[in-house]
Amino acid sequence: MPSPNSSEPVQRSLGWDRAIATDAAERAKLHSYIALQLAAAGLQPPEDDSTDHALAQYSVGFLQNLREKNRLLADYRAPVDRRIEAFLTRHFAELKLDQPLRLPSSSLVLDRHGVARELSLPARGDHFENDFVNSYRVHNGVLHNPRFDRRTTAGTFHIVEGGPAIAGSKRTVPKAVFAKLFQAAMSPPDELMSLPYTADSDSPARCFVSLLLRPLVCPAVAGCCTEKRMEVRFYAPGALVSNLDFVESIFGNAGDALVPENDAGLDVEHWTGHTGCVILAPHLERLTKKELGLPHISEATPLQIADRMCWEDESECYNDGSPFKAVCRTDEGVVVTLIADNYYGYCKKEVKSQISYSANLLGGVEEEHAGGAMAFASYSLGDEFQVDSRRYNNRTFEDIARDYSEFIDVKPEGYGVDRLYPEVIYIPENAKVTLLEQCVKWQHDGREQRIPLLPENVYIAPSGYKIRLDKHPAAPSWRLVGTAGEGLVCHKPCTVSGGGKSEISKSLRDYMLYGPIFVMDLERDFATLDELFSRDYSGRWHPEYKQKPSYSERSTRKVLDSNRSLGSMIKLLTPSPDYNDDYNAWLASIPNHIYAMAFIIKRFSKPEWEGNWREHFSVDIVNGELGHQLKHGRRNLVGTYLKVGLDGDQWRTFKLRQDFIAAAKVQMEDDITASVVIPGRRVGDVGPAVAPAESYKFVENCEFRLFQRPDDAVHRGLDKQTELDMSRPGNFLCNYEPKDRAAIAAMLSSTIELGEFSDPMREMLIEAGEQDSGYVVSSAHPRMIDGKPSKNPRYLQDRLDLTSPLETYVAHRGMRLHRALPMDQPVHMPVAAVLSGRRNNPPDPEQGIKQLAVYSPLHYQELPELFMDYICSLTGKSPSTTGAGSEGALTKGPFNNMPPTVDLNDVLVSMILTGLSGFSTPAGHIGPRFEVGHDISLLIPEIWCRLGPKERDPQRMIEQSLLEPIADYVDSKGEYVPASRLGYRITQRFVVKYFGRVFDNPGKVFSDEILQPELQDPEAFAEGVRHIADAQQKVAQRYFDDGTWQLASPPIQAILSIMATGEWYGHDANSPVVREMFTKEYLLASDWYQARLQTKQTRDVALWKRHIEYIASQRDTLASFRSDIDLDARLAYAQQQLEIASSPQYLKDLVGTLGADPMLPIEARPSKPAAELA
């Protein structure tokens, strides 16, 4: 993957450095380059450009020669185009078409990032408009508002007959109809062919534009596998060039397809062998069904009637005139898609769909609809911190100086400086970091050594623990912040639209609230605190609590005892089933503000005070009376609070622990993820955060920029990251209002509203107001549609892990130090936790949307119940789409062009081999009463990264009553409610035990009505559960209706049957026979898993043979071509890999991987008849 810097290859591919991409001189050069391209293509560049005229004077002969060569070579195709056209010829041969299906013979090639962006607007104008898009050049980038502000999921996915089975949720397109659609796509109307760049010219250019992508399919895992990429070819009529700007900004521009260095066929090490093609053709929706050759309804088959592939009225348009995409694919490895719309999300999702197609055929990998982050627990360390690395990994500075001299520059004073980032300082194992003295000090060679404590530096101990100086965001004070050396990769797969994929990687810091520590009555409150601090707590235990400690040898510790941690104190003062009723009643009688005071006093307490805490805390005198804000010395104390949902219109806010700091996060995923499962025997050290497993999953983001929907940014100042991003130049913006001079002036005149923005956005708006002309976009002003703001404003956000390389670097260095890994061993970061996301909604009778809000804040489901959810993937209405309902298998239903059983089988094998547990969190609502938005999505990773592998083990949680099973029941109406489908949910005991690592008063965070949503409205809960079961039944029945159930693995077949009919050969979901099918032992011994491994070997052998044949075919062609391509070396590599893949040992080595889905019917039967278990 390219690293985020301004090197020429990265700049050509991604335009990563915005300062370069938006520089006036660079843009002038780009305009000259575009003029040369246009002229070479026989198109007229914009007039009145002296640079272009000067260029033309010296190049007229050259351009005439080039144009003539292009004319003579009109039938020559780039290698990728040859592969696409050869597939089309084979697939449609039976139609005996008059003309073969050919891609455009000429197109304007987008061979570097930035060309498409310039072409999407007039060369000397700031606005372009046609029936499909309204585009603006704005102060902070470019704004494109397509005719529809979001994609639709209803009836949009059409697949051409032939090839793998077509799921019943898709519409089947006859081959002859697709052929006519393709031919029509090659003849767009002049309006669509007009290039915006030349829109103001006397002779506007009309052409296709083309682009080559190489999206990621398999991530590289050092020492285990290299990265694999497919090739995707885009064609669009000139007016839609902004769509290609969009996709190249996300996936990177792979260069000119004609150049041999860009031929994926020669990239034997990294090409998957799969080719995609996407053609934008929104004019296709104007074609009638009759002219495309679809039959009259009287002559149509039942399938054609069901798919609306027939007509009653001759004027009926294909797909009823609505947007659609038509996909032609087989198992050959080529997929061609026509998209009859220009909403940008369709283009991105189609690349996702084609990555998924490649992953399905390649085997061993998955394309996942996921978000994710690596989270590092962080803490406020107060004013002073004593490093003690030996306690955590028994390492000293001498050890790391010896082992890591490659990146540590060791100083004579006994510390080190990072060779790449000098702001990273490596400190000794016994160093003391002191805020009061503003230094880090230690003993070395009998002398005290000191270095300054600076806010721009990160100080890393030999254990990997990281310390930095941090300014309190809401107080005039500084603090030391410590961050764990080992992080936790939280993976949010199978997450529906609006389920929190992006939120899991966002920092909680921007969502925290700050306020004073309130004192009601100083003397009375301090007296209560004295009682609390001096109380004997040995009598708190419930008589039946079996783990009650013995106090015969030592008495219970006092609250302010330095041997009692803050966490222990929180547990002590939180009501619990382990405590007796009288003690719990006493805890309940303590006012909330007393809790806050007690915890902050504990936080600052020192042993030398000897219990005399009163003299260190006070309040000011205000208007002659005692004030109400607690002070420590001269310092006003500030508490940190977090919103966790709303009760009606009221925010539910809770005070965080005084030592809590939001986890440091490194973004890993956002939407399109490539993942691979590697056998544990090949991986090595994965760190202490991951439980030992048969295999491990590794993930990588396929996108360099993320199509973000910043829901909170409409509230000025709330989403600071979005305001920072959108204040920068060079943004790609969609569905926002273009603010012209008058609108900017009006915004600037509203001092109060302007002041609510964070500094970067406010300063950018002021800067835009100082310009003489032009437009600007405000993060708080989405596009207006029918008088209402769009719910789907979007922008392309640079990936945070790439824009902040120091944070990613420090994270990796901390893990290497913590694990004491030698330099020749990679730092592996496999997935440690699965936290899928749901989109839950209360009932909305007017919209016909039924309740989904039956889930509590955190659920665990064993694999049978989890896959019922994954198969159905129910969602409430999301701002991203126009509908609600089932998104299909693992939420990829709207995007997947292959049978959904392939992904289901892959995910099942992955979950079993990795042993990852299926937890899930809600977005939207919990019950009809409590709205939580994304608050839970943000919160749970903070809890999870503070738990060890054993603490995250669901079986252990069940044993400790931290999780409770939800049982089926009969409601008050006498109707059966299959609530066991929801699995397990957290209990109040879980909240008390684990939420105390984040909150002062964890028992208050979730009431019984939140943990048990049926208490809010029993009838609505029962209806919601039945709705889920009904939806699961209907979705499962489709697999039997379309026949794809036969392609499912035996465990999935069993679950599909149980979902559809309630049983599988007499077994229900609770049958031991069914449960056993989801175990590792069953999987590894099964014939169907062995078939997957054999299929993977067969496909790998075929791919290496294909590589060898292609290189051999190109040797003569490229012999005289001056190139850095070493064909002999590549041929030798392919031959070596073919030998390895063909060996019997290769099949053995595949055990523990996903293998590849054969996509063949499987006959599954239970191991025992149900009668034997009766």
From TrEMBL:
Q: What is the lineage of its organism?
A: Bacteria, Pseudomonadati, Planctomycetota, Planctomycetia, Pirellulales
- InterPro entries cross-referenced by the UniProt entry: PEPCK_lobe_2 (IPR058710)
Q: Which domain of life is it from?
A: Bacteria
* Residue stretches making up the PPi-type phosphoenolpyruvate carboxykinase lobe domain: 519-631
Protein name in UniProt? PPi-type phosphoenolpyruvate carboxykinase lobe 2 domain-containing protein
| Source organism of this protein record | Rosistilla ulvae
